[in-house]
Amino acid sequence: MVRQAGVSRVARVRRWVLSRSWFELTTATVLVVLLVSGLFGGLREVDTDPVVALQAGQAVSAQPLQVRVTDAYTTTSFGGIEKKGDTPQVYPDTSKRGRFIIVEAEVENTSDATVGYDVLSRAVSLADASGFFPRAGGDALVPADEARPYAVYTMPEKAVFGVAQPGLTYRVAYLFEQSSTTAPGARVTTVVNRHTWREDSLDFHFDWKDPEPQASGSLPLPARNAP
C-alpha cells in the first residue's frame, strides 16, 4: 500500500512536469539553484588569497592610492626641525611610554579627487604584534591590527598628512606607539590597505570606506635614530 502511494505521487509529479512549459521549468530550475546557493554562501567567485606579498620599495596599488613602503624601524623620538630663518621650530615627538614603530612610505593619490586623513591614516597598518597604545588615548593596550597611527607626517617638513591632492606623491612616516612593556620584535608585519568607494548607509554620502589588506609582508625592524 505504501508502494502504491509512492508510485501515485511520482505519477502526479511526472504529469505536472509534462504539463509545464519550457519557460516555467527553466524559471523553476533557476529559483531552486539560487535558493540552494544562498544556503551555502551564494553564487560568488572564490578568491583564494587577494592579499599580495609586500616588499620594501615595491609600489602597491591600493585604491585610491599607490603606496610604496620604503623603510621600517623603531625609535623613542621622531626628529623635529631646527629653526632656520623664518622657518619655525618643529619639536620632536618623544614617546614617554615606550617607542615608536615607524613605517616610511611614498604615497600617491591616484584618484581624481582629494583624499582625506581618515583614508590616508588607514592606508598603512601593522599586524602580528601587540602592546600598542590606542590613538584615542588611555592605557589599555591593543594588538597591532587594532592600532591606529599615533601620527602621520609628511617628510622632511614634518607636517600632518591631512590631505593628498590628486596626482601628487608624498613622502610620509606612520608612527605607531608601542609600550615599553612589550619587547620589540626583530621584524614587523606591515600591511597596505585598499578602500572601497561606496555610499554610506546612514548619511548616503559616497566616500572611500572599508579598509582591507591589499598587500602584507614582514620587514626588518632595526632600532635607529629617526631623521
**SS content category:** alpha+beta
**H/E element string?**
HHEEEEEEEHEEEEEEE
Task: Give the tally of β-strands.
Answer: 14
Report the sheet with the most strands, covering strand number, pairing sense and barrel closure: 6 strands, antiparallel
**Helix count, DSSP H or I runs of 4 or more residues:** 3
| Mean pLDDT over the residues | 85
Give the overall shape.
elongated
Question: Which spans have pLDDT < 50 for at least 5 consecutive residues?
Answer: 39-46
In order across it, which strands form the biggest sheet?
A: 2-3-6-12-9-10
Q: What is the beta-strand fraction?
A: 35-45%
Fraction of residues in helix: 10-25%
Rg is 27 Å
First-last Cα distance:
91 Å
Quick gist of this model?
The chain has helices at about 1-20, 20-40, 115-120; strands at about 50-55, 60, 65-75, 75-80, 95, 100-110, 115, 125, 150-155, 160, 165, 170-180, 185-200, 205-220. With about 230 residues, the protein is α+β, with helices and mostly antiparallel strands. A six-stranded antiparallel β-sheet has the order 2-3-6-12-9-10, with no helix packed on it.
Characterise the protein shown here.
Helices cover 19% and strands 38% of the residues. The protein has 227 residues and is an alpha+beta fold. Strands 2-3-6-12-9-10 form a 6-stranded antiparallel β-sheet, with no helix packed on it. The chain has a 4-stranded mixed β-sheet with strand order 1-14-13-8. A two-stranded antiparallel sheet has the order 4-5. The longest helix has 18 residues, at 2-19. The chain is elongated, with a radius of gyration of 27 Å. The model is unreliable at 39-46 (pLDDT under 50).
